[in-house]
Amino acid sequence: MEQVLLLRYSEIHLKGANRGYFERTLMHNIKYWLKDEQFMLQHIPGRYVVSGYPIERENEIIDKLTKVFGLHTLTPAVCLETSPEAIIAECEKIRLDGKFRVTVNRASKIFPIHAIDFAGQLGGVILKNNPDAEVDLTNPQTNVLVDIRENGYTYIGTRVILCHGGMPVSTAGKGLLLLSGGIDSPVAGYSMAKRGMTVSALHFHSFPYTSELAKQKVIDLATKLTNFLGDVDLYFISFTKVQEAIHRNCNNNYMITIMRRIMMRLAERLSKDIGAGAIITGESLGQVASQTLESITSSSAVVDIPVFRPLISFDKVDIIDVARKIDTFDLSSLPYEDCCTVFLPKNPIIKPKLENVAREEAKLDIDALVDEAYSTLTKMTIKLQK
Ligand code: ATP
Ligand code: MG
Fold first, then answer.
1. Nearest by Cα to 172 from 11, 6, 359
2. CB 380 within 8 A of CB 223
3. Ligand 1, CB cutoff 6 Å, lining residues
4. Contact between 363 and 245 (Cβ < 8 Å)
5. How far apart are CA 362 and CA 65, in angstroms?
6. Is 98 left (phi over 0), alpha (psi -120 to 50) or beta?
7. Distance from residue 358's CA to the centre of ligand 2 (Å)
8. Coil, helix or strand for 157?
9. Relative to the CA of 288, which ligand 1 atom is closest?
10. Residue owning the nearest CA to atom 31 of ligand 1
11. Which helix (H) or strand (E) holds 265?
């Protein structure tokens, strides 16, 4: 008998022929997320089992596992060799009060007793030993889970801990996240990694108009995101000369519109160089002037690569909820200025017309500006935190 963690995954079940690929990737990711722990990992049909860990590390291990995309729920459980007698003996030890039920999952069809009958029998055993307990099948405080698996072992636990779900990171290609210091873009990166993307990040800074603290904030945000994304390649490009050139030469109301388009061109170039197949942004329709349908059309128009905007339909409060859940909200709320706020126009164009944007952009040598900005590219790799 051993204390283990029983891990369940969900959507991978839907995969047909390449299900094995998803399962192997998930196994690889679980090992990587627990790389600093002592443990064993076993894949049994329909489940993973983590065992052999020091019990005092259990909470930390659970915390890390909940952040491995692809896992749906997990249960701390006792593992025993399957036999009705051994399961009954284990249920004899359970102490609880209040409303409870027993749920038997008979994945092993050679187990001789039907699930519902056996659940009733085990419920009787628990009732006998716990005078303050009563059975409630619909609204129990405690659900005693008895998972009889095909591998000859049964797992018994009473807690179901929700993980973040999604698909295993690195099963859905690579995306380049435009990471500002704000609330939205970290949530956008989390959202696409949740669908299985490997996410690299790009930040535009306007040093010396923006400070070292603003840059550090982005590094800290990317570090936080490693909890879900795994290792993150974080790129920086200096946007100062671009902004100065727009400021000098163009109608200032087009500042943000043109900045966005140049950011997109730079992001596309970097994507091609690092093998990313999509750009990811934290835009949400109508949130600010630069996120109207017309503004989004104008920034997408300059690139030949999909732009994923996973928050497009989110209200700010919904984005904040996720930011709190992934613990980026407090960092994002620190006040350091972003490059977009440095040259903020008083009356930004809300519905830019493409021909007007093109007229303003014609006042710039876009190719030279993009080349020059791209030459400032630097990279750091942030490893998944301990
Ligand atoms: P956020 O909270 O993500 O900063 P926001 O509401 O402030 O979003 P904008 O400033 O309009 O929105 O930016 C929209 C998107 O453009 C951001 O979500 C991000 O993906 C990208 N972006 C903005 N500024 C930068 C920057 N300095 N570096 C990289 N990407 C940026
Ligand atoms: Mg921003």
1. 11
2. no
3. 178-180, 182-185, 202-204, 281-283, 287-288, 290-291, 338-340
4. no
5. 52
6. left
7. 24
8. strand
9. 11
10. 180
11. helix 255-274
What is the SS3 string spanning 72-101? EEEEEEEEEECCHHHHHHHHHCCCCCEEEE
* pLDDT, tens only, 262-286: 999 999 999 999 999 999 999 999 8
Give the burial class of 148: count Cβ atoms within 10 A of its Cβ; 0-12 exposed, 13-18 middle, 19 or more buried: buried
- Report whether 309 contacts 337 (CB < 8 A): no
Mutate to test the pocket of ligand 1, among 185, 342, 343 (most ligand atoms within 8 A of CB): 185
Least confident range of 19-23, 31-35, 129-133: 19-23
Burial 76-100 (b: 16+ CB within 10 A, else e): bbebbebeeeebeebbeebebeebb
pLDDT at 293 over 80: yes
In the block, tokens 């706020």 appear at 341
Q: Which amino acid is at 313?
A: S
DSSP string, 309-358: -TTTT--HHHHHHHHHHTT-HHHHTS-PPPHHHHT--SS--SS--HHHHH
Token pair 């018994």: residue: 156
User: Which residue's CA is the nearest one to ligand 1's atom 2?
Assistant: 182
